[in-house]
Write a structure and sequence with these properties.
This protein is mainly alpha-helical. It contains eleven helices and three strands. The protein folds into three domains: 114 residues, Arc Repressor Mutant, subunit A, CATH 1.10.10; 45 residues; 50 residues, Arc Repressor Mutant, subunit A (Orthogonal Bundle).
């Protein structure tokens, strides 16, 4: 399908007129634009509305270039919305995914700003949701949740507030106890020192601090002495 990018150079010498706008047969949200009786380019219906394209309207080269840029931005916006329909994203995550396409940094930044203004993109909400998932579903400790949110490109202060809000009302001791209880039958078949070392390691990898780990290990494995380094 020919785009404004390939057609704009043909109209530098004169100002053409839109003689026809028709719906594309296979894509109801797109329109074919005819200039001076000939097909010129296809564009999204939202672009038609934004630039108020209509039959009888003349288009300068500058207007055609602006329509081209508007079409690229609409494509970028649609791609971003498809990502957001699958799950929440941080701004950094969405930026990284959109950069895989050839939209350009300026277009992507503009789209991300629009999505933020429309409340589709909110790093604070993303961080809070991710922290809740870490605590309630992934059974992760505070430290692990914080690191996972940072990996998503959220700023440290935003990640810290989200983790604090969630974990201040989360019983981390109960979560750690539940994880340890599941492992207890297997661990009790090992010698006491090895059992304790493995349980401590597992809970540390889950992101629990030692003040949480110690009473859980003592409760589940009977207060075994810590292994010497």
């Amino acid at each position: 399908m020919q785009s404004p990018r390939t057609s704009s150079s043909r109209y530098n010498a004169r100002v053409p007129t839109i003689t026809k706008i028709s719906e594309q047969k296979r894509r109801a949200n797109r329109r074919n634009i005819y200039l001076d009786g000939k097909f010129a380019f296809g564009c999204n219906l939202n672009v038609v509305a934004k630039f108020r394209l209509r039959e009888g309207m003349t288009l300068s080269p500058q207007q055609i270039a602006a329509i081209e840029q508007g079409e690229v931005k609409q494509e970028c916006f649609d791609a971003a919305m498809r990502f957001l329909q699958t799950r929440l994203h941080s701004r950094a995550e969405l930026h990284r995914k959109l950069m895989r396409k050839e939209y350009g940094e300026a277009v992507i930044k503009s789209v991300l700003d629009d999505l933020t203004r429309l409340n589709y993109l909110d790093d604070a909400r993303f961080a809070k949701t991710k922290a809740l998932s870490a605590a309630q579903h992934r059974q992760q400790g505070r430290r692990r949740a914080f690191m996972e949110i940072l990996k998503s490109g959220v700023k440290g202060d935003v990640a810290g507030r989200a983790v604090e809000d969630v974990y201040d009302v989360t019983d981390s001791l109960a979560i750690a106890r539940q994880l340890a209880t599941k492992q207890a039958p297997r661990l009790r078949r090992l010698d006491p020192v090895t059992a304790k070392r493995r349980l401590i390691g597992m809970l540390q990898r889950r992101g629990f601090d030692y003040d949480t780990i110690r009473p859980v290990v003592e409760e589940v494995l009977g207060g075994i002495d810590e292994p010497h380094e």
